[in-house]
Amino acid sequence: PGYVEMEFPLYPWLIAVLYKIFGYHEILGRLLSYSFSLGSMAVFFQMARYLLPGMGTICASLFFVLSPLVVKISPSLQAEGLMFLCYLLAAYAFIRWVEDNSWKYYAIALFATTLAILAKAPAAHIGLFFALLVLSQKGLVAVRQIRLWIFALVTLLPSIFWYKHAQNFWLTYGNSLGVSNEAHSAGLGIFTHPSLIIGILKIEALQVWMPTGLVIAAIGIFLHKSEKTVRYSLYWLLAIFAFYLMASWTTSAGWAIYYHVVSVPPAALLFGLGVEAIRNIHWQDRSTSNGSQRLKNLVVPFAVFCISVTFLLQGLRI
């Protein structure tokens, strides 16, 4: 009958509904993906505004919208656009819930996380980010909170049931969209095939960070290492890289660069923080020594050069 093992087919179902209403036009699916992309931009802008000062917000948002990976998935007929929107919404709402203890953000985070994992199973790595965030904010006593256990069960059980159901299609008919019929988990291959890690780092450097953005992010981390934005972004990246390593047979491959789109939000936040840190470096400060002043006079022009090159490379890759 043509049944295929795949992620929860909400995205193709929505396209089918549009075809039913307006007739078969391929552009309808692309417009649907593009609407998800616009939603992702709106959510990230709100997140950047919440976590960064003015100039940092602007530059982080520019980094995000000029990201070649974000642009790549925006018109594509893939479920990544839906997943990415829900993924960003889940991250933002969970951060707000941890800080504000608001039931509104708890409900949004719960719904968005559930839908993100259903849309694409790799989004489940966001759970590690949430765990690190909660432990850093509330300590081990957080494991006693019934709301966290409810959150974990509600967000994971629908996906577990769906993917188990979908696996039966693979077992019965032998059709899969890469869930069971391809090797994803690297296991010990990480240690015996260094090309896997090299491939991951190469994609990150060239497709996410550009790679001069790493310099700006490093400045932001160094000068603002005590700020929550640094902690949140690094926890987020740690969870992402745990996923990359676990599924490195896929995430290290050139054809799978779109899997790395999840690195863009924390990278953009750190980039924006770096720009803000550079903006706060004064050209003239009588309280500093001549050596420190000369260092500042070297760092600032170099940093501005790196910022310019980052945006230029993003534009060229788009």
What features would you describe in this structure?
This protein has helices at 10-22, 26-51, 54-65, 68-73, 80-100, 103-119, 126-138, 146-173, 189-192, 194-209, 213-223, 228-246, 248-251, 264-279, 290-317. The protein is mainly alpha-helical. The longest helix is centred in the middle third of the chain and has 28 residues, at 146-173. It is globular.
Sequence-ordered SSE layout with sheet pairings:
Elements (H helix, E strand, L loop, with lengths): L9 H13 L3 H26 L2 H12 L2 H6 L6 H21 L2 H17 L6 H13 L7 H28 L15 H4 L1 H16 L3 H11 L4 H19 L1 H4 L12 H16 L10 H28 L1
Helix pairs in contact: 2-3, 2-5, 3-14, 5-6, 5-7, 6-8, 7-12, 11-14, 12-14
Short account of what is shown:
Helices cover 74% and strands 0% of the residues. By secondary structure, it is mainly α.
